Amino acid sequence: MGLLGIGEAHGACSLLHAAGIGYGSSLPLKLNTKVALRDNPPKNEPDDPDGLLDSVIKSWEEAGHKLPNVENLYWAVKSEIPPRQGLKSSSSVSIAALRALCAATETDLENSELVDLASSAHFDAGITLTGSKDDNWAVCEGGWKIVDPSLPANESVLFRGIGPSPEEWDILIVLREERESLPSLEDFKFHQQAFSKALDALQNQNPIMAMTWNGRAMCGVLNDNSNRRLTNDAMVNGGRGSGISGSGNSIIVFSPAASKPTLDRIAKWYESKGFEIIITKPLLAEEDSENENS
Which residue of 21, 163, 229, 275 is surrounded by the most CB atoms within 10 Å? Predict the structure, then answer.
C-alpha cells in the first residue's frame, strides 16, 4: 500500500513564552511541515533524536484511538522549519503527524483535541517546560492566541488576535547555532516584569511589541549578551521589532513590507556576520490553508 495518510502544519515564533508568567502566545509563520505515515520505509529516515514521533503514537493510543491495521508503521517528514531554533518545529511535526494518523484511520478530531494530544507527546518526549499548547495552537491554524497551558485545549484560549498583515510586514529569521538544552523554570522567575509587558501589548493588539518585550525577557533568561546585541542590531538597521523566539536560538525581525531596501539592509548585515537568513510572512487566520479539522 505504501502511503497511509498525510498531514500538514506550519511554523511559528514566540510572542510570549508560557514559562514567563503562565500564559503563552505564538504567531503562525508561513513555513510548512508535511508528515506522511507509511507501511513501508521511506527513502530518508526522519531525524528524531527525542523520539517525538514514537511519543505521538503513544499519546494517540493512550487517548483510545486505533492505529492503522498494518504490520509496521513508518514516518516520512519534510519540513521548512529548522529544528531547535525556537520556531516550533516539534509542535509542527506533532500536529502534522497527528493529522496523518487521522487521515490514515478516518478519524475526525477538532484542533483542540490535536493540541492536547501533541502536548502529551511533548511531555512524554521531554521537550517542553509547559506543554507547548500555545505553540501547538499556533501551528494548527492562523492568527495568534493568548493561551493558558494549564487548561484543557478547548478551554485554554483566553484571547484571539488576527495578527500582523503579511501585506504590511516581512519577517526575517536569523538562524544561529542549534539550541543544546532548555532553560529551567527557575531561570524565568527574575524576568516577570518584561513578560508582563509582553502580555499587556498582546491585550492591546500589538503583537510586534509583545514579541520585542518577550525577546528582551528571554535575553535575560538565557543570560547571553550576544542575544541582546544581535536583537538590538536589527533595530539599528531599520527593523520595527525583534526578539528571541522560544527558548532560542533564532532571532525574529519585523520589517515593513513597503520598504524592501530596509529588509535588504537587515538581511545583508546579518549575512555579513555569517548567519543564515530565512524571509517569510505571518499567517493570518483567514489565510490559513491548513485543514481546520482533520
Answer: 163
Same domain, 155 and 264: no
- Report which of 214, 182, 233, 286 is spatially closest to residue 15, judged by C-alpha positions: 214
By CB neighbour count within 10 A (0-12 exposed, 13-18 middle, 19+ buried), where does 223 fall? exposed
- Classify 180 as helix, strand or coil: coil
Measure the CA–CA gap between 280 and 268, rounded to whole angstroms: 16
Distance CA(247)–CA(161), nearest Å, equals: 23
Residue finishing a domain among 161, 183, 200: 161
| Length, in residues, of the chain | 294
* 38 in Cβ contact with 76 (< 8 Å): yes
Residues 48, 159 contacting (CB under 8 angstroms): no
Helix (H, G, I), strand (E, B) or coil at 32: strand
Residue 126 included in any domain: yes
Instruction: Please write the tens of the pLDDT for every residue from 15-69.
Output: 999 999 999 999 999 999 999 999 999 999 999 999 999 999 999 999 999 999 9
